[in-house]
Task: structure prediction
Amino acid sequence: MKSHRLTNILLGLCFVVLVFGSGYKLGEYQTAKAKIDRQAYNILNAATPANQNVKNIDFSLFWDTWDKVEQKFVDKKKLDPQKMFYGAIKGMVASLDDPYTFFLTPQENQQSKDDLNGKFEGIGAQLGLKDNRITVIAPLKNSPAQKAGVETGDIITAVDGAATKGWTLIQAVNKIRGPKGTQVKLTLERTGKTFTVSITRDVINVASVEVEFENDLGYIKINQFGENTNDEWDRAVDQVKQAWDEHKIKGLILDVRDNPGGYLESSVYIASEFLKRGQLVVKQESTGADNRDYLVERDGRLLTIPLVVLINKGSASASEILSGALRDHGRAQLVGEKSFGKGSVQEALDLKNGAGLHVTIAKWILPNGDWINSKGIEPNIKVENSIPDGNTLTKDNDLQLKKAIELLTK
Result:
């Protein structure tokens, strides 16, 4: 991934706001690299950009606070200047009060990239914030979390006995992730009941796209819109296209349930497989830049195959762009539950020393004009899966999947 490109990441809730520390902004100075001597630190500052209106900010309060913390704080071992520096930047960004604009330390930025590359060590659960509570969007297939009985919608109230109230998502992720073979205890709240599970961490490899054939139908599951999704998608479509051309299948089920999103461009690429050239997939609107229409710019290979898309409350951002565009153009029926409802666009920026910044730059609008933020997308046919406690969703009890099969084979 290029170090500074407009990726327009829609991180569906896997990386949400980091709230920690106080606000911070380096002072504005006229020289290219002015140096201020402060006790044991040398603070380097960049020059004020040319042709920019200068705003005078008295930074004495910040340094007065910094000095008082160093002088008075009881545990001197915790006075880590680098950590305090990153915490200050996080606080500055968090002051914008946008849950999808956040600063990442070098370690956190690398974790974010690893997620989109589909490999990391941990328990294998997509997490998000719902009403400011750490919530499981979805456990990954065959992950330690799924095997331990973690379910979509579970609220994580404690990690290893530490209450998660007031935590940011990154704080939760950092506490839950860890080396393969180590254990973490999660206290979960589900339908008013609280219980604890112990989970052994492992290496998590996430395939973006999975393809199967059954019941005279093709079935493609998209787990996320990541770095490898387009390539994996092309290989899956090769198989589906051949089966369709040879009259071996009657239609296709596209499953984006529990898919938290990823790259906007990837959702446009996949939608283009089913829509005609020139059709609008999504519109990007911004107050600080030109608006942009994302149109179909290639010849899709599955333009005529009957299509049903499965969605649920774990389908977010890029998943909603894909399913919404197919619905609005009458290309597919949506079956399942109302989607999550994330309608903003983030740009992922790489900063100095490996740090990163995800910043909201626009909102996206579906072809019919809907901005689904906090509203979600309603399916054409509403079907809820009700799984008894202790059981796992399977093909036998998946009512949403059964409805899709019925629609395509009747």
Remarks:
- Residues 229-245 form the longest helix (17 residues).
- The first strand starts at residue 9 and ends at 10.
- DSSP finds nine helices and 23 strands in the chain.
